[in-house]
Each structure stands twice: as structure tokens, then as C-alpha cells.
Amino acid sequence: MSRRKQIYEGKAKILYEGPEPGTLVQYFKDDATAFNNQKKGTVTGKGVINNRISEYIMTQLNEIGVPTHFIRRLNMREQLIKEVEIVPLEVVVRNVAAGSLSTRLGIPEGTQLPRSIVEFFYKADELNDPMVTEEHITAFGWATPQDIDDIMALALRVNDFLVGLFLGVGIRLVDFKMEFGRLWQNDEMRIVLADEISPDSCRLWDVRTNEKLDKDRFRRDLGGTAEAYQEVARRLGILPEGGPRDMKGPETMQ
């Protein structure tokens, strides 16, 4: 489609003006960043794979009644989304200790948590996205108590769905990050899932070997980042052995 006015550029995506009012075009880049943009690189083909994986997951979530900003994929790197007012929070759901949780609390990486834990981080790169509480969120007006209730309920519902989806293809969902937005329709507002769900925003480990199949391969200089992303897509049935083709169902691991 013809290039439209750029609205916003982030670390991994660009948003363009959409073809209709209330829509945007989300473009997935191959750029990779870590440690709040201190480490930068390029993973060839990452944007294409993330577009397909996020499309697949968002479509599945829409079908089970989880409201998202996703409308449809347009091409290899772009998808059409609803324009939303982004809540300035990163919402992280943790099932297994890893990353900053292990560092902060001294819990060995790989420890199964007693229950899924939801954490909030204020979206501010210049502050390194600090962790915040519900008190901070409501006091500074980033979200209302009702917004938080809606976000928590959706986050846990998405987590339940993704844990089962990935486990079915031999992948352990360790933790993942989400963003949410306010969608205004006819003077009514509701909270919807926004941004993306992909190996960029999830920690995904092979259930048998604990091999990392996500952006930690880039963060930790493990190599094989593109191949890991492709393996996730292959297991989900988006990128079969024979190469890219139209999306089908996931491949069940025996």
C-alpha cells in the first residue's frame, strides 16, 4: 500500500496514518534493541516473523472475546489496527522467575512461581521504565481503578490462553509484556489489548531443553535469534518446514 504520514516510530515498529478514520498501519521493523536501547542491532526478517506471529495470536484472542486493536494483516510487514489511546504502562505477567524478577528478588531463574504475577512499569525510556504500584498509577492519573481492574482481568485471561497455546507446541511461556489502550466508540470507552505479542515481548523456552526461543538470544549474545523466532513460528504452524505460507493451526508436540 502507498506510504502514508508517519505518526510514531518506536524501537521495533512504526505507526502510519490509516486508510480510514480511527485506524493506523503498524509496520514491523527488523531493528532489535535491549537494555533500554543501550544495545542495538538488526535481526534480518524479524519484522516479518513478528507480524505473522502477532497476527496469529491477536486473531485467536479476538475469536475468544478478548478485545484487541488488531483488524487484519495487510502484507509481510504491516497490519491494520484500531487507533487507541495507549495507557502509559507496560504490563508484565510472570509465570516463571527470569530477568529482572530474578535480579530484584534473588530467585533463581527457572523457578516456577506459586501463581502468575502481574507487574506494572511506567512507560518512560528516560527513566528506564520504572516499576510502579497501583497507588502510583491512580495517584498520577495514568489509569483509573476501573481501568486497572479491566487490565488485570484481560492480562490474566491472555496469560491463561497463551500458556495453553504455547504448551501445546512444546514451549514454556516464562513471562511476557503487554500494552493496553483505550478505544473510544460512540462516547463509550473500553480497554483493549494493543501493541504486539511476539518473541520480542515474550520469554519462550523449549519445555524439554529450556532453550531460549525469544529476544534473550539477542540480549545475551547467544546467537541464532532469527532462527529461534522462525522456530516459534514453525511450531505455531505459521512457518512450516517448506517455507512461508498462509497461516494454519499449530503443530502439536508429542
Describe, in short, the structure shown.
This protein is of the alpha+beta class and 254 residues long. The chain is 27% helix and 32% strand.
Protein model, in words:
Mean pLDDT is 92; it is low at 242-254. Helix 1 (46-63) runs parallel beside helix 6. It contains 6 helices and 14 strands. With 254 residues, it is an alpha+beta fold. It starts with 5 loop residues before the first strand and ends in a 19-residue tail after the last helix. A hairpin with a 3-residue loop joins strand 1 (6-9) and strand 2. Strands 8, 9, 10, 11, 12, 13 and 14 form a 7-stranded antiparallel β-sheet that branches. The protein has helices at residues 46-63, 99-105, 134-139, 145-167, 216-219, 225-235, and strands at 6-9, 13-17, 23-28, 31-34, 39-42, 70-73, 78-82, 85-86, 89-96, 112-122, 131-132, 171-185, 188-194, 202-206. It has 2 domains: 6-83 and 225-235, Phosphorylase Kinase, domain 1, CATH 3.30.200; 85-206, D-amino Acid Aminotransferase, Chain A, domain 1. The radius of gyration is 18 Å and the shape is globular.
